[in-house]
Every structure is written in C-alpha cells, then in structure tokens.
Amino acid sequence: MQTVTKPTTTGSDPGAILTLPPLPPDLRPFPVPRRRRFLRVSWFFFRVIVHVFIVDILFNRYRLTRWYAQRTGVARYQRMAREFRRLAVRMGGVLIKLGQFLSARADVLPAAITDELAGLQDEVPPAPLPYVLQILIAELGASPERIFARFDPTPVAAASLGQVYYGELRDGRPVAIKIQRPRIDEIVEIDLSAVLWAVRVVKNYPLIRRRADLELLFEEFARVLREELDYVSEAHHALRFRVNFADTPGVYFPKPYPELSTRRVLIMERVDGIKISDYAALDRAGVDRAEVATRLNRAYLKQFFIDGFFHADPHPGNIFVRVEGPPPPQTNGVKPGAPFTLILLDCGMVGHLPPTTMEIMRGGVIGLATNDPERIVEALDRLGMILPGADRRPIIQALQIVLRHTYARSQRELTNIDVEKLFDETEHLVRDLPFQIPQDLIYLGRAISLVSGIVTGLHPDINLFEETQPFAQAMLDRERRNGDWLEEIRREVTALSQVAATLPRQMDAYYKAANRGELQMRVDLSRLERGMKRVERATNRLSGGIIAAALFIGGTLLRINGFADEAFWSWAAAAGVALWTVWPRNDR
Q: What is the pTM assigned to this prediction?
C-alpha cells in the first residue's frame, strides 16, 4: 500500500502550497466483512453469557461449588477482559467504546481487570492513510493543499470512531483534524446488531427484566452513538461548553472551527497536554494529582447540577492536563503544585438534563452531603430509580446502614470496607433489590461512574463526601437567594395545617374505637411471605434433586443390566429434572 510522506512547504515562502502525493488510482473500497464481524462479536458475548450463567449464577447457588465461583472470580474476569481487549483492538467500533467505559471503573472493578482494558485508550490501530485522505478530500471538496499549509500524515490519536492529525491552516493557525474512520457508520450498525442480540438474550433473566428495559436502554445508547458520528453537532457542543465554562478558570474546551468542518471531518484548535492517567508524567511535571482530581470532580458537579449539559464520555483518553509553568516557591511549609489547566476533548457524546431532573438531583446530592438517607431515597424515587409500589422504609433503613459504613470516608478506605458484613446487614431489607434503570439516565450514570473511576485513580485518599459538601452548601445558598426557600416553607406550612385540621377528628375516632375494643393491628406480611417462598423453593429443589438422583441411579442399573436404550432415556429425564430444579424463577 502506498504511504504518504510527511509534507513540507517548498522554499521559505510562508504562503507556499503544501504538496501531497495523489491517491492510488486502484484504491479499492475499504473492506468490511459484515457477516464474519457479526458472528465474531456475537460469539464472544454468547460465551460470556453462558459463563456468567453457569459459574456466577448456578455455582453460587450451592455450597459445594460456591467456593470455586468466589475464589476464581477475579482471575476468570481478567481472562475475559484480556480476550475482550484483543477482540476490540482487532475489530474496533463499538467494542472500543465499551472497553473504555469499563477500563475507567477503578472505583468498582479490580485493578487486574481495569489494567487489562486500559490499553484500549491507546492501542486502537489507525486506519490506512489513503482511505483517510479519501474521506478528507470528499468532505472538504478540495485537496488538502488548498486548506492546509501543513498536514502531518502520522495520526497523533486513533479512537473508535475517528483519528486525529495535526496540521496548520493557511493563515498559520495550528489545528487538530479529526477524520472519521472509513465506513465507520456500517461498522457501528453491525456491532449494534450484535449487541442487540446479546441484549435480547440477557433481558429475559428475571432480575434484569424487573429493573430495566434493556431494549429501551440499548435504543438510547444507539441513538447517542449515531449522533456522535455527526461532527457538525460535536462542534456545536464544544462551543456550548466553552460558553458554560467561560468564567471557570482552569478548565478548557478547545475551540472548534464549524465553518471548516463537515459531518465526517472536524477541524479544531490544537492543544497539548499530559494524559490524565499518566501519573508518572504528572508527578514529573510537579502537578498535584489531588488538585487535578478535585478540579475534575467539581467541573462535572457544575455540569450535572447547574448547567444540565454534560460531557458524557470522560474516559482518560479525552482528558488532558496542560502545565502552565513551574511550581511556585514553597510558602508556610507547604509546597504547591505546578499551575495547570484541565482540557476536555471529544464533545460528540453529551447528555442533557431537564430542569426538573436537575432540581431532584440537587436534593439528592444535598442529602448525600448532609447524611440524610430520607432525602436521598426521595430523590431516587422521584427520578424513577425505585420500582413502582416498592416500600421505601426498608430502603431508607438499608441506606442508613450503608452510610454508617461509608459516610465521610476516603476512596481508599471505601475499598477496604467489609462488603460481606455490609451485605449481611442490609440483605433482609432490600432482598428484592427494588431498583430500576431509567432510560434517560443511562449516560448520566455512565459519566458519573467514569469520573468516579478517574478521580479514584488520581487520588485514592480523596473524600468525595467532603468534596460534595461545599457544593451542596452553595446550591442551598443559591436556592435561598432565588427565593426557593419561601416556596419550601409554604409547602411545609400547608402540610402541617392539613395535619392540624384533621388531627382532632382522627384522635376522636381512635379513642372511640379503643373503647369499643375495635382497634386493629396491621401486620406487614411481606417478609413472612418471602420467607415462605424461600422455604417452598428449597423444598421443590430438594424434591427435584431426589427425583433426579433416583432417575440417574435407575439409569445406571439399567445400563449395567444391558438395557442401554432405557438407560439413556432415564439419564435424559434426570438431566431434565435437574435443569428444571436449578433454573432461576421470578417468584421472589
């Protein structure tokens, strides 16, 4: 394949025209093996689903095999992560997006797994240059020589949907040129069809079916991903972020040039910096990583709770730190870190939060900062994250226990809490896990989890509760200044007046019923009902196990006595009964 050498300007004339070799005349269409790609992606998800069902669901049901599932969990998932990374690097597309999301979950996933997937932020191989130049020429309607004074043919970054080159416009402005991968829209559709197949299988599991409409979540994911393929929208998103953060020092979004950009080519201001996950480089530059973590966390709190418009793809490959100078001299025995600017790239994937959702979320974060579980549960309920009809009382009790173990602790301390003890204390309260995933919050949850993982990696001792408190206080002060506190008082007074008006009548009815001996006690039988169901399930499984064992032993005796056909059917019946016994049921 013909390569393009690094272009140069001729002579010393600053207006000299850039010359690039022409495209090969026999350039064939970029190959996309549709059927083979679909089968390879589907086969991987199929094997993962079968593995999780057998080892993590069935094995965990029985004491004899539970030790294997629990003891080998990290090693098994590390092997799967390694295999997924190889597949994603080889195939690109949606798999890279999924791997980048998981690699940033340092707050919930073991380092053995996130380390395996971290390479997906850098290992994406670039598409061949002739195909990229073909897209560039088709989109700009002219050869690169007419647009750029310099164009470096070596990509500085290769992502799942596009790759970035450095260049210089004819007026001398240094720019970054983001060009979509060849036929990436077709590749995305193939991958989405494979993921949809997996979603339609997994959604039938009862615990998942009750808590999320996976197909609706998938449709939201697919919609945003297709929007990310439109670089014109990405340019407008970047302009909006620049307006929102114009008065926020230390956070910067590069300037796009919409007049030069198209749907598949984005030209923007060139910026340089240190990748936020390159801890060694940050330390060498004298940057205080704790300050980086704090600034990133506060930048996203602003987006979530004030702007209602947030950068939804904050994986480490999209966040850089630009050092602005050497560290200042030490004062009062404290050595400050070097001044820096936080730079956020790739504004294609964004999320929008309506004012009502932001108001509810503000109430939730205030409840978290003030250790108020009732306010947190109220916010979760109003956001639609609690199943309709669920009893909020045990959820509040469980949250009280969780906050007792976690409140005001650093991220490092949180990784060392006794999870098994915590689960034992809360299992009887939220055994049915009465939570669901609303469709419109999928990218909010993704962004929160990604930022949490990055912040934890930067500064394991950060205390997110302490970080949230001043922000929550600022929101309370803002609400008071806006007069919202008057509305809150009005609601409270109205509620109290209604109680006061009905209280005498209720007390009179209570005493009359007591004198007549008609007081009734209401008993919540839900816990007893769940216990009876568990006993019933255990009895059914015991009976099924006895029947399966009897059929198996009978088949063995038939085989010993020469009745091979009868033995086969006896063993088949034993297998059927055993499968019926262990099959999960939605009878909780």
A: 0.71
What are φ and ψ of residue 212, in 5° steps? -160, 140
Q: Identify the CA nearest to 396 among candidates 435, 354, 429.
A: 429
What residue type is 391 in one-letter code? D
Q: Which two tokens stand for residue 224?
A: 């945003």
Average pLDDT rounded to a whole number, residues 277-296: 94
DSSP string, 90-127: HH-THHHHHHHHHHT-TTTS-HHHHHHHHGGGT-PPPP
Is the pLDDT confidence value at 297 over 50? yes
Q: Write down the residue that tokens 């193939």 correspond to.
A: 190
SS3 244: helix
Contact at 8 Å (CB) between 337 and 291? yes
**Rounded-to-integer distance, Cα 95 and Cα 85, Å:** 9
| Residue 238 burial (10 A CB sphere; 0-12, 13-18, 19+) | buried
pLDDT single digits (tens) 235-275: 999 999 999 999 999 999 999 999 999 999 999 999 999 99
Helix axes 526-560, 564-582, angle to 10 degrees: 170
Average pLDDT on 25-46 reads 84
Percentage of the chain lying above the pLDDT 90 cut: 24
| End-to-end CA, the chain | 61
Domain ranges (residues) in the chain: 274-328+336-482, 483-520, 527-582
What pLDDT, on the 0 to 100 scale, is given for residue 201? 86
Sheet strands (E) in 97-216: 148-151, 157-158, 162-169, 174-180
Confidence of residue 546 (pLDDT cuts 50, 70, 90): confident
Q: Under the phi-then-psi rule, with left for phi > 0, alpha for psi from -120 to 50, and beta for the rest, what region is 165?
A: beta
The phi, psi pair for 351, rounded to 5°, reads -125, 150
